[in-house]
Every structure is written in C-alpha cells, then in structure tokens.
Amino acid sequence: MEATRLPNHRIEESARQDYVYVINAYIMPFFGGMRLLGHCIR
What we know:
The chain contains one helix and no strands. By secondary structure, it is an all-alpha fold. The protein has one domain. It is flat and about 30 Å long.
C-alpha cells in the first residue's frame, strides 16, 4: 500500500511517516493476509 498509494500524494515527510506508522501498526495487522484490491478506492 505504501508503495502504490502514498507516493501519489503531496504531503510533508513527517505526515507521511506518521501515516506509514499507523498503517503498519494498526491497519495492516487488522486485515492480515486479506487482499484489499477489491475494496480500495482508486
């Protein structure tokens, strides 16, 4: 997700680091190995 979604957004580096931390610490563990492709908004 980080490699495909975050590079497309212009945000401050500190905000990007915070987003990556939250995604990796809370969101990814919740979804585990589920594929999210069908649920993502593009």
